[in-house]
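User: Hi! I'm a student and our assignment asks us to look at how structure tokens line up with a sequence. Could you show me two examples?

Assistant: Happy to help. In each example below, the sequence comes first and the structure tokens follow. Example one:
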Amino acid sequence: MTIETLHNPRIDKLAFNTIHLARNQLLVNLRFPDLSISQLKLQPLPDIPTLATDCHFLYFNSGHVLRRFYQENPVLA
């Protein structure tokens, strides 16, 4: 079983918090898309490889989110 197919509430919560951190960084750095970014509801979806949206939800693969975060922030790993 790989992290892509693993559906674990603790991993989902950690990925959810990571996305909130990234969203907040975008809101601070980019003034204009703040309303559209903040209106997307987050939904973990282990069946997708990365991220997807339908303009209402931001669907995410928790394993992908965490792996990308730690690749870009190795000090936190």
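Example two works the same way, sequence first and then tokens:
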Amino acid sequence: MRIRLLSLAILLGASTFAFAQTDSETQFAAGLAAKDRGHYATAMRAWLPLANSGS
């Protein structure tokens, strides 16, 4: 029983890391959503640091 619980915990932990977005992807998505709403200044604030870092 303990081995099953441990295996389940490891599997869930690994899947969390596999599907986690990076900070850059999250920031880009936030800028894209802002642009789609017509909030161009907000989109620029989200994207400018990415552009400056080369991401």
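Here is something you could point out in your write-up. The helical segments are 2-19, 23-36, 40-53.
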